[in-house]
Amino acid sequence: MSTNPVMSDDSGALEQATLDLATLGIVNEPRKARRSEESPQAEKSGHGPARVIALCNQKGGVGKTTSTINLGAALAECDQRVLLVDFDPQGALSVGLGVNAYDLELTVYNLLMQSGIRTEDVLVKTNVAGLDLLPSNIDLSAAEVQLVSEVAREQTLDRALRQVRDEYDYILIDCQPSLGLLTVNALTAAHGVIVPLECEFFSLRGLAMLIDTIEKVKDRLNPDLELDGILATMYDSRTVHSRQVLSRVVEAFGDKVYETVISRTVRFPETTVAGEPITTWAPGSGGAKAYRALAREVLAR
């Protein structure tokens, strides 16, 4: 599926967006190796310690939740133990896995804001083997206000995830479409960031702001944070605009752009209704094959 098409010159606005990205100076950074030191508990279980990845983009509707669900399911197919964290008050990740978070007594909100609540108390098993969920609902929106007065407020999620980090190979955090305190919490807890990027001009414009936020969190809160990669989503090879945007992102970020490209398909909305990943709903579809390819890339990096 994928990758680096050669395009014709774009509009002046698109060129300027590319220049803004290039000036960030993070093109072709060497990748850090995944941590090799494991705790005794991790060695005993054969899993962990988890690499924590935040799927983040302040623009909504770019495929963050879809990518979190399906990348997690594809990693689970590769015998990885995966925990998905629904860190968006809209709760779309939970709904996409068939969980009605409004019927649950405990969610991520309780884990963050109430003492004595353990991560295991909130954890929900999904219908996919090896794939677990920390669900969320609208209650989480109150946490952004309540955390303001907390000491070390940016590390709240990180402290919660430490309880289970040795039990998983990957923890994927589905961030809300903003750059507020909840997103900063996710970035502080993460080792890496995957940026789902819709192949559309306005998504490209906002990418520079997101990368700047990642760099600030890295400098001030989490020196281990790195940009794992940029995932092109909602790609339509029939349109010149999609090809131009993808070309500009590849020019600016080089091998930080995943080879796998997620194309538009009606299958993804169907999986939301079904409440399961595309890898089980339509295992032979192009979308399922694409996320399996992405999982292989994530494992290889």
TrEMBL record:
InterPro entries: AAA_dom, DNA_Partitioning_ATPase, P-loop_NTPase
Region (Disordered): 28-50
Pfam families: AAA_31 (PF13614)
CDD domains: ParAB_family
Gene3D superfamilies reported for this sequence: P-loop containing nucleotide triphosphate hydrolases
Compositional bias ranges of the Basic and acidic residues kind: 29-38
Highest taxon listed in the record's lineage: Bacteria
Stretches of the chain forming a coiled coil according to its record: none
Residues of the AAA domain: 51-226
SUPFAM superfamilies, alphabetized: P-loop containing nucleoside triphosphate hydrolases (SSF52540)
Protein name as annotated: ParA family protein
